[in-house]
Amino acid sequence: MQTKLIGLSIAALAFGMPSAARADASFLQRFDGGWQGSGTVQRDVDPSPRRVSCRVTGSRPTPNRVSITGTCRAAVIVTRRIGADIRYDPASKRFTGTYTGSTKGPAQVSGTQRGDALVLTMIYAVPIYGDRNATMTIRNAGNGQFSLVVTDKVDGADKQTSNVSFSKS
């Protein structure tokens, strides 16, 4: 029996079976519960990034779906609702969904799991920094912390336009 399990494990590694093939509960469960965080957000109309503090709650309405909702605050007077609703499709091994938080409207996201990160292509409703595309990386190593980084082309160069780190609250 043990030899059979070892053989199956080696076969899985040999065929490059990614951890996203399961989208197992252990990865998606990492986002459950309350989180608080801080970081920076660069709006296309501002000359420099704004410091933000955020509170979000993660839940899994179904085993292959994660929903994260909350608010971020910049200074004392600016509060914005943020969220992500992301589904995993075991057949395609891809994640798809919607991100809300941009002043320009919701963005469609799609991508794959790479280790402890979801790497998602974002398509905004309208052009930001000259196009509608960006990359969102949500990294969660399962240690009670996760980060959300958005990278966009600004004047032809890759630039982090959002970088927020969260801890379990």
Describe the model:
The chain has 169 residues and is mostly beta strands. It has one domain (20-168): Lipocalin, CATH 2.40.128.20. It is 10% helix and 59% strand. It is built from two helices and ten strands. It has helices at residues 2-14, 25-28, and strands at residues 33-41, 50-59, 65-74, 78-89, 94-100, 107-114, 117-128, 131-139, 145-154, 157-168. A ten-stranded antiparallel barrel has the order 1-2-3-4-5-6-7-8-9-10. The longest helix has 13 residues, at 2-14. It is globular, with a radius of gyration of 18 Å. The protein starts with a helix and ends with a strand.
What are the secondary-structure elements, in order, as H or E? HHEEEEEEEEEE
What name does CATH use for the topology? Lipocalin
CATH class: Mainly Beta
Q: Give the biggest beta sheet.
A: 10 strands, antiparallel, barrel
- Give me the side-by-side strand order of the main sheet: 1-2-3-4-5-6-7-8-9-10
At CATH's second level, what is the architecture?
Beta Barrel
Give the number of helices.
2
N-to-C span: 43 Å
Backbone structural class = mainly beta
Mean pLDDT: 85
Radius of gyration: 18 Å
Strand content: over 45%
CATH homologous superfamily caption:
Calycin beta-barrel core domain
Residue runs with pLDDT of under 50 for 5 or more positions: 1-21
Percent helix, as a range, is: 10-25%
Keywords: Signal
Signal peptide: 1-23
Region (Disordered): 38-62
